[in-house]
Amino acid sequence: MKKIGSIIIILSLVLVMLLTGCDEELKAEAKKVAKSYNTLVNEYNENIKPYNEAVDSISSANDKFNAVINEAQKVLNKGEEPFDAKTKTNLKKKIVSANKAVVSVPEKISEKKTAKVNDDWGKGELEDFIKKTKSDKKAISKLTIPDSPKIPNYSKSQKTLKSAQKKYEDSVQGLKQITAPKDSFVKKRLQRVKTITAIEAVTEDHDPNGLLNKQGGYIGCIYFTDSRVDRSEVDTSEGTGCIDVGNEGGGTVEIYATKEEAEARDTYLTSTQSIPFARPGSHYVRGTCVIRTSEHLKASEQTALTNAVTNALIAV
Fold first, then answer.
1. What is the rounded CA–CA span in Å between residue 294 and residue 307?
2. Which residues of 13-49 are buried (b: 16+ CB within 10 A; e: fewer)?
3. Is the model's pLDDT at 251 over the cut of 50?
C-alpha cells in the first residue's frame, strides 16, 4: 500500500509540473501578445493627438467667440434706445450672423487602453486574454484616423460684432446726452462747431420767448451765432448779443424735459412757417432738444449746421 501511495504522489507532482509549465508558456505568450498590442495602441494614441488637439482648439475658439456674442446680447437685452435706431438693428443682425458662424465641435477620438497580464490568471483566463487581445489588435490595425478638423478663425466676425456693439452703445449714450441736458453741457459742445462764433444761454431775466422753466416751456435755451450769416441782414435793434439778435443770428438749442414737449414745440414752429412772407429757419427734434437754425442760411447750410450741432451733442 505504501508503494501505491508513493506512486500516486509522484504522479500528482508530475501532473502539477506539467500544468504549471503549460500555464507559464501561456503566460509568456500572453505577455508577448500584450507587448505587441501595446506597441500598436501607443502608436495609435500618438497618431490621434493632432486630431484631438484640433478639437480642443475649436472648443476654445468657440468659447472665446461665444463670450463676445453673449456680451453683445447682454448689452442688447438691456433694451436701451439709441439715437440712431439703425445701430440697434445692425447689432441684432450681427449677433444672428455670429451665432450662425459658430462651427460644431467634433467628437474627440477616444484613446485605446493598453493591456496587462495578471500574474494570478489561470489557463482559461490567459487563453481568453490572448484571443481577445489578438482580436482587438486586428480591429485597431484596420482603423483610419481622419484628417484634423480645421480650426475656425473668428477674428473678423468678432471685430465686426464688437464694432456694431460699440456703435450701438455710443448711440445709446448719445441719446442720453441730448435727453434734458444741462445748459453747461450744450454750451461746451457747441464750441466744437467751427462756424459757431458766440454762445449765450437765456435766463429768466433775459429770455425773448419767456418760456424758461414754465409749464410746457423749455428748461434751457442756448442761442448762438454762425459765421455764415450775413450780419447786414440781421435785426440788431434789440442789441448785438446772441440772445438780442435771436435765432436769426445763427441758431438755437431749446432744451425740454420730455420728448413730447420738444415735439409740441416743433409742431408750433411748423405752424408759424405758414405766415405770409415768412422766411423759415429749420427746426428738428433731437432727443428732448429742438435744434433751430437761422432763416438767413441757405437750405444746405441749415442742414449742415443742424448735423454739426447734433453730432457735437451726441459725440461720446
1. 14
2. eeeeeeeeeeeeebbeebbebbeebbebbeebbeebe
3. yes
In this structure, the answer to whether residues 208 and 77 fall within a common structural domain is no
* d(C-alpha 172, C-alpha 183), whole Å: 20
Q: Are residues 7 and 139 in the same domain?
A: yes
Using alpha carbons only, what angle is made at residue 142 by residues 49 and 42, rounded to the nearest 5 degrees? 35
pLDDT at residue 5 in the model: 52
What domain count does the chain have? 2
Helix axes 49-77, 2-47, angle to 10 degrees: 50
Q: For the segment 51-91, what is each residue's pLDDT rounded down to a tens digit?
A: 999 999 999 999 999 999 999 999 999 999 999 999 999 99
**Which of 168, 200, 235 is the C-terminal boundary of a domain?**
168
Q: 191, 222, 187, 192: which is closest to 207 by C-alpha?
A: 222
Whether 173 maps to a domain, the answer reads no
Based on the domain organization, do 74 and 142 belong to the same domain?
yes
Joined grid coordinates for residue 117 = 497580464
Q: Are residues 273 and 200 in the same domain?
A: yes
Mean pLDDT, rounded, for 17-22: 48
Helical ranges in 209-258 per DSSP H? 242-245
Mean pLDDT of 220-240: 95
Please, is 222 exposed, middle or buried when counting C-beta atoms within 10 Å of its C-beta (0-12, 13-18, 19+)? Answer: buried
What is the gyration radius of the CA atoms in the chain, in angstroms? 43
Domain that holds residue 49: 2-111+119-168
What are the pLDDT digits (tens) for 159-170? Answer: 999 999 999 999
- φ, ψ for residue 114 (rounded to 5)? -75, 160
- Give which of 304, 306, 80 is closest to 175, Cα–Cα: 80
Q: What's the pLDDT score for residue 6?
A: 54
Question: In sequence order, which residues have a C-beta less than 8 Å from that of residue 295 and are 6 or more positions away?
Answer: 247, 248, 278, 279, 280, 281
- 37 and 153 in a single domain? The answer is yes
Contact 112, 155 (CB under 8 A): no
